[in-house]
Specification:
The structure is a homodimer. By secondary structure, the first copy, chain A, is of the alpha/beta class. The first copy, chain A, folds into 2 domains: 1-100 and 264-359, Isopropylmalate Dehydrogenase (3-Layer(aba) Sandwich), CATH 3.40.718; 103-259, Isopropylmalate Dehydrogenase (3-Layer(aba) Sandwich). Helix content of chain A is 44%, strand content 22%. Chain A has 12 helices and 12 strands. The first copy, chain A, has a 10-stranded mixed β-sheet with strand order 2-1-3-12-11-4-5-10-8-9, with helices on both faces. A two-stranded antiparallel sheet of chain A has the order 6-7. In chain A, strand 8 (180-185), helix 7 and strand 9 form a beta-alpha-beta unit. In chain A, helix 6 (160-176) packs across helix 7 (191-204), helix 8 (217-226) runs parallel beside helix 9 (238-252) and helix 10 (290-302) runs antiparallel to helix 11. Chain A is globular and about 55 Å long. The two termini of chain A are 27 Å apart. The interface between A and B is large, with 54 and 54 residues. The complex binds 3-isopropylmalic acid (IPM) (2 copies). One 3-isopropylmalic acid (IPM) sits between chains A (88, 91-92, 242) and B (188-189, 218). Chains A, B: Mg(2+) binds at residues 218, 242, 246. Chains A, B: It is found in: Cytoplasm. Chains A, B: Catalyzes the oxidation of 3-carboxy-2-hydroxy-4-methylpentanoate (3-isopropylmalate) to 3-carboxy-4-methyl-2-oxopentanoate. The product decarboxylates to 4-methyl-2 oxopentanoate.
Chain lengths: 359, 359
């Protein structure tokens, strides 16, 4: 079996700590399930600026392009706020450089976590949808953009091809899930949203089993709180997706636990937790490692087709949550390392049990 | 005392019904408190298209400009979806024509309504903030915008003057409230947001008593759910304000009850409920009139300095809520007219009590 090449971008703030946790779990699961890989650490974000003079150093792009998958933890922090090219710039550019046009975020509320949601239990129970966010166009990349002392301009741009390909990702996903798609736009105001909706209607023709509804982004911001259970796959332009996917994460009450994947045409996916780099708690050994550990599981499942390993990791994670061996943000009193070790123990313990059963 | 001239835009769907309710309450309160006014009904929105061939007929603009205040209920509906100029276009253009650059929305969760919120009680109790949304620029009005079959473009534009004036509205409001301002932007990505934040920092210098914090719009979408109590005055660009103010409305669980005002330099304010025209329940006499009634109260208070009348109306509204004389969307079993009549009864009853006490 060929070794898989994983590019590792530990980033800033709590990034390196939780990356260490994620990689420890990857190692344990790989030993157990006989998965072979090699790691290629690269500077990125604030760390890219510090180590190589840019948030997205050339060497990192080259390595990323040659990788089978990319693991990123989190970037940014006040230290680099006044840099001409800030850490976030690296994130935008790596998306662009690798053609990572589809950001996919599961929004699932497990029964065991319902108490953690800010929403009342009956509203949120059973919530299970996926947000498909366009990631390499729209307001983030449109030209011209300019900033002067007396005025500023941004451009929102979408081409037909850009809209078609993200629609297909979303509709294909719906077919494998519950055959329901929600299209988000602001087509009562924006020209780009009119095109977005028009192409959605066209693409929908090829998916006769899928029911489609259309929401204005403002109505959607309400519906995510009022009745999140109704959604299955939500397809949204870049800027709206940024806002709505964070809103959706919040209703799970588990922002420290959510992984995401950015996928593109080139076949190299980038996996990352959805939260930020939390510089205020960096270096204290108290950051919640679960998001990064779930991110590793997502990578194993989606890039390497190892749902066995992913499942073992997720089961172990659910076990520590049930046992409340968790960090302070989840109401526990354990540190990053303790939670990670316990998860590894469960992964390994799982083996023992499995071996017993197979006797 | 001079008669106040109020332009009335009954609009579409449930618009005319709830406008009737609001005006009945205005009449009752005016009789009681000796307030003189005249009404000037004008076609607008879908009704504008039907009656005068355009969502914003010329005559409506002329009347609006000559008014002391404008009452709008709600516009739009599937009937006009294929019109070249749809009802919403009228709304955008009246904002522009009257220079209504500041949309102000209170987000208050009354103790008596906490059960109606989708949020857990401890999260939402005590929430009381105001969203100040820029309303005549940004992504809504920037040029160029174009729509072709293969691509579309919108422009986000802000000038310094546009940003400065909305900042001043927000900071002035904070001084009269709790001296706290939250600035919303996406300055890690958008040029217009960089200018937005930069000018906010400048304006803040003139308000030494006001504490300011800065939020990215995605983080803000989370914070509104996670911890809404922390906010006092929130200042946001047009498009973000559209999304966040609806999200904020939803956490109150009382979207059928929230008024808003759009204010401008010219001195004529436009008052409207924040909800839509709900064509599905139009004409059945079941629409919740409370939003429109509170909108009338807001107008009396802010345009006509009649806080006595506004207070009497709000007290009566709270009374029907307490007595559960409310429409189905609020868990009651009463129709629009019954709720309205009861509110009027309380307004009049209130007099009797007041007179008794003053004996
Ligand atoms: C850091 C920032 C540029 C980024 C974005 O807006 O896309 C982040 O919020 C995200 O959602 O990944
Ligand atoms: C109807 C629509 C154009 C409008 C807007 O987006 O401004 C509405 O959503 C609002 O918030 O008043």
């Amino acid at each position: 079996m060929e070794k898989k090449k994983i590019v590792v971008l530990p980033g800033d703030g709590i990034g390196p700590e939780i990356m260490t946790a994620g990689l420890k779990v990857l190692e344990a699961a790989s030993n157990k399930f006989d998965f072979k890989y090699e790691l290629d650490y690269q500077p990125f974000g604030g760390a890219g600026i510090d180590e190589a003079g840019d948030p997205l150093p050339e060497q990192t792009v080259i390595a990323a392009k040659a990788a089978d998958a990319i693991l990123l933890s989190a970037i940014g922090g006040p230290k680099w706020d006044d840099c001409p090219r800030r850490p976030e710039k690296g994130l935008l550019e790596i998306r662009s450089a690798l053609g990572l046009f589809a950001n996919i975020r599961p929004t699932t509320v497990e029964d065991i976590q319902i108490d953690r949601s800010p929403l009342k239990a009956d509203r949120v129970q059973g919530t299970d949808f996926v947000i498909v966010r366009e990631l390499t166009s729209g307001a983030y990349f449109g030209e011209p953009r300019s900033l002067a002392d007396d005025k500023a301009i941004d451009t929102i741009f979408y081409s037909r091809a850009e809209i078609e390909r993200i629609m297909k990702i979303g509709f294909d996903m719906a077919v494998k899930r519950s055959n329901h798609v929600t299209i988000v736009d602001k087509s009562n105001v924006l020209a780009t949203s009119k095109l977005w909706r028009q192409i959605a209607e066209e693409v929908a023709q090829s998916y006769p089993t899928v029911t489609v509804d259309y929401r204005y982004v403002d109505a959607m911001a309400m519906a995510i709180i009022a009745d999140p259970k109704q959604f299955d796959v939500v397809i949204t332009p870049n800027l709206f997706g940024d806002i709505l996917s964070d809103e959706a994460a919040e209703i799970t009450g588990s922002i420290g636990q959510i992984p995401s994947v950015s996928a593109g045409s080139a076949g190299v996916n980038l996996y990352e937790p959805i939260h930020g780099s939390a510089p205020d708690i960096a270096g204290q050994g108290i950051a919640n490692p679960i998001s990064m550990i779930k991110t590793v599981a997502m990578m194993l499942d989606q890039s390497f087709d190892r749902s066995d390993m992913a499942q073992a990791i997720i089961t172990a994670v659910n076990q520590v949550i049930e046992d409340q061996v968790v960090t302070a943000d989840m109401g526990g009193e354990f540190g990053t390392a303790a939670v990670t070790d316990k998860i590894i123990e469960f992964i390994n313990g799982g083996t023992a049990q499995w071996e017993q059963r197979s006797l």
